[in-house]
Specification:
single chain, alpha+beta, two-stranded antiparallel ribbon, 4 helices, 2 strands
Length: 74
């Protein structure tokens, strides 16, 4: 993952994991927490980061066939 982008997102107030999850969600376009966490070392912390990003308005959540899907907002 591009450390320069992560550092830039940290300057804008995101925690490191939040920045990583946001970038992974952008790459996935729309996916489950598992799909977003594929390139990250931890999956359990991804749920917390997704919730924080949702609260900040950077991630949207939809439910499709009883499965939560997340999408990063531009």
């Amino acid at each position: 993952m591009d450390t320069t982008l992560i550092e830039m997102l940290e300057v804008f107030g995101l925690e490191k994991l939040e920045a990583q999850v946001y970038l992974s969600a952008l790459k996935a376009k729309k996916g489950s927490a598992y799909e977003i966490s594929k390139n990250l070392k931890t999956r359990t912390s991804v749920y917390t980061a997704l919730e924080k990003l949702k609260q900040k308005g950077l991630i949207s959540e939809t439910v499709h066939k009883s499965k939560k899907l997340y999408q990063a907002k531009d």
